[in-house]
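Q: Trace token order:
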Amino acid sequence: MKALIIYKSVHLGSTKKIAEAMGKALGADVKQPRKVDPGKMVEYDLIGFGSGIYDSTFHPSILELVDKLPSLEGKKVFVFSTSGIIYKEAHTKIKRKLEEKDAVVADDFYCRGLNKNSFLKYFGGMNKGRPNNQDLGRAQAFAINMSL
């Protein structure tokens, strides 16, 4: 199975860590949105889309990439995110966009990430040490399950 993990990690690298753990488990290509050729998506059997959560949704670069994709008819995809607080509705917009591309959205994965936004920086942040080894192990197990 040929797999691709596409992610955007802006602030503290939490999403990058999860993307790399999933990529390692799958032997997948791991790329940021600007490095993805939409025309080559047909080469992959499994595609993961990941982002930190910004204003209750995925990073604009991930959403814009999905808009540019050709039909993903029958392609198995999944979404994942990191955030200070788990907000399951944050995946709604990207899942809808992927379904509009005729992709099969298999599942989603959520992980707490370090958050140093706003006043939290004065206290060292929220979710210190996250994602941790247990989170990375969960991410790898999730990715392997997606490949079955």
Observations:
- Residues 133-146 form the longest helix (14 residues).
- The first strand starts at residue 3 and ends at 8.
- Helices lie at 14-26, 60-68, 92-100, 133-146.
- The CA atoms of residues 54 and 137 lie 25 Å apart.
